[in-house]
Amino acid sequence: MIAPGGRRQLKAALAASIPAERLIDDPLRTLAYGTDASFYRLVPQLVVRPENEAELQLTLAECRARELPVTFRAAGTSLSGQAVTDSVLIQFGRGWRDHAILDEGKAIRLQPGVIGARANHLLAPFGRKIGPDPASIASCMVGGIAANNASGMCCGTAQNSYRTVRDIRVILADGSLLDTADTDSVAAFRAFHGKLLAGLERLAIQTQGNAALAEKIRHKYRLKNTTGYALNSLVDFSDGIEILKHLMIGSEGTLGFISTITYDTVVDEPLKAAALAFFPDMGTTCRATIALKQAPVSAVELMDRAALRSVQDQSGMPVVLRTLPEGAAALLVDVRGNDQAELEARMQAVQETLEGIQTLEPVTFTRDADTYALYWKIRKGLFPAVGAVREVGTTVIIEDVAFPIERLDEGVLALTDIFHRHGYRDAILFGHALEGNLHFVFPQGFEKPGEVERYQALMDEVAQLVGVEYGGSLKAEHGTGRNMAPYVELEWGPEAYALMWEIKALFDPGNLLNPEVILSRNPTLHLENLKPLPAADEIVDKCIECGFCEAVCPSKDLTLTPRQRIVIARELARLEALGATRSPEDESRLAALREDYRYAGDETCAADGLCSTQCPVGINTGDLVLGMRHERAVGQAGVARRIGRHFSGATRMARGGLNAASAARALLGTDLMARASTGARRLSGSRLPQWSPALPRSAPVRMLDHAPSGDASRDKVVYLPSCATRIFGADHDDEIERRSVMEITLALLDKAGFEVILPEMIGHLCCGMAFQSKGQFEEATHKGRELNRELLVASQNGRYPVLCDTSPCTLQMREHLDERLEMLEPVAFAHDHLLPRLAVTPVDERVAVHVTCSSTRMGLADKFVGLARACAREVVVPAEITCCGFAGDKGFRTPELNASALAGLADQVADCSAGYSNSRTCEVGLSQYGGIPYRSIFSLLDRASRAS
Fold first, then answer.
1. Of 9, 88, 434, 465, which is the most exposed, with the fewest CB atoms less than 10 Å away?
2. How far is CA 242 from CA 112, 159, 202, 227, in A?
3. Dist. CA 167–CA 186, nearest whole Å
4. Is there a contact between 661 and 697 (Cβ–Cβ < 8 Å)?
5. Distance CA 46, CA 63 (A)
6. pTM over 0.85
7. Over the stretch 325-375, which tens digit does the pLDDT of each residue have?
8. Which residues contact 492 (CB under 8 A, 6 or more apart)?
9. In Å, how far from its chain's centre is CA 928?
10. How far apart are CA 169 and CA 919, in angstroms?
11. Number of helices and strands (H, E) in the chain?
């Protein structure tokens, strides 16, 4: 904990070089940014966001001068408490996402802010991937993967960061920098840090000369092991640079900061097959695992009966899960190959290996992509399945141990017995069976009397069993953190433990780098600073704060992520629940959080629901925010009602406003127009919308008088232009496409031979989303009912499909309108109904595609890209551009959200002729920040096709 004066002095010292917006000490953001996926809660006094090595070195120097501890943080998906602090938290964001492909994909150089899945996306064209494959790879960052030596389902011990690191660039506690790939840097480091290197080499000689200790180390690292420091570096290497490089792996930010890591990549075999094998009992399952250790498999995942039961009732799960006998267990066996012959041979080898071992059903491999994905969905859904059904106020704990595989069956039974004896009968067991790596997941509350003591007794007995009696690992892949720091000496013994303290003293004599993590003299550290999870709202109460949602959130680099919004909502609920017992300090904190949350939590939330696609338990944090908006919007319900009742007039006024803006643009020019708008917005206190140079013309609506052709031979489709396309026309600066979306859609439907039916009173219709997004739920419901009635009439009660030209509106209608209506959005309709009717010749262009949030949520991303590829020579899908952040009208009213969400877009689409999407408002923001015109995907299809 930093004294308030010390925090202010540090902030002032750093402010001379680091902008104030990247020095954070307000109550809301320190709590939000200080939260990670563990069940520990420490609130940093200052959060620093350096953008380069120089700023980081300055931060370390200023903290060192004041003897202030620092903790490094990447994605915050770690589970063991290694990324929380009540001192200075150093976060790494946009400035740390560089990468370089080396040796034609055989290596990759990555900064710590690169998400693991992004690294694999970069390597995919080369048929390669990074070795580590943690379950959180779609959200965790390379900095955490390396600092925790995270592994996963396929990498085992042969392909983890320790085994695949080629080089690192590291900054130590004293601010010195070493780049092991740079011979000059290595020479300088040897000259100026010879004492550190000599100390490491001395420890290596000492360890290698101690036969018993050296053998113990080798035994421990035949297993997965992230307990303590990587002592295998002392037996694997003799050179100080190599020892240092490998000690940094898994050091959890306690020895230094890895600013760049170069991995030797591994082959990503393209052909995959999987079998879900069921066994009568755990003993048989473990014997099958031991037999498969010598088989050509990529992964073998074990699941006990309780684990399978936790997911058996979820949608799409195999019926057999419900019929398994008590005591049964399963192995998910994954086999991969470079070609068909190799894959077949490996599947056959697995079948031969399992011959003579009793199974409940014949073992059958599948190569069907959907079934393969389902099998892995079962496995990956186990941890969140417990989280989803736990009692409100409790957390979910995942223990992460490894047994020598030859004793796996004994270890599993003994561990299960311990959990049952301590009353943890809800625990489920699964894990990476080939490595003897097991996860026990169970709900745990700490508020009731005796619960902390029960958990302590459990952990003491588990540590003794695994670490001592079986010679296993107490932390196989999740890192030591605070959770296992009190047990490191128990697992390793006093001799190895003393070595670790010597290593810490060599690197960090002041003990300022992440103190209390990995090494601690506090025997009850793992029971302190436990995170409260109070009830806040039933929408989010099942959140386990894993952080998987953060990577796709458009406001992640601006204000808060979904996880962080939930953290603050919980703290608000906790403070409000205190009622009359709140202290003056609590009152002040509550008022500050409420005030700051209005902007950070609400105004900058796109409420796009994309977070629910990544959340293991399906939470849509946007629904929480919409509920808050609804509570505040009660006073404006009358205004919303008047707009809804006179909606055609409201859209006419909007078109009139666009005409006025177009006239002003023609008179003033874009530069003066932008300055005038910015000035007016500033004077209004941001109440006026921001004009955008990408603001389109108004849409002509004369074509809505469209009369049916009367051709009975044509298939019929009901066409509903959204209110957005009835307002926004073509881009002012688009020289190629001058038509509105409505004009394009009608032309395309006619070309494909469809008879178009337009609903009655079309100018008055709205799906309700415009009102829903403002928290005006009642008017949203009213508009939805109006639309439902008209669409049922137009479609003859669902006889004809309904096409809406705007994807988000289609999703809104799918969720709220009559199930008889077949609601189709542009991508699905074009892919499934238009392509077969048209002769398509791809245009000779490189085009960009933006898959909207709604398309992602409807599972249309692959169809979107496939449609574009059918229509253009080359298609670019910009990396890490998820939601555009325009969110209806937020692109005008909160333009910084749109700007932040699309940062980096222009560089990725610079060589594209145009971009294509399926939401007119999204296309406005994309055009502004992409630097190219964005159009409806219908425009591309129309340009590339002719009637067949």
1. 9
2. 20, 18, 13, 20
3. 11
4. no
5. 11
6. yes
7. 999 999 999 999 999 999 999 999 999 999 999 999 999 999 999 899 988
8. 220, 227, 228, 231, 500
9. 26
10. 43
11. 41, 28
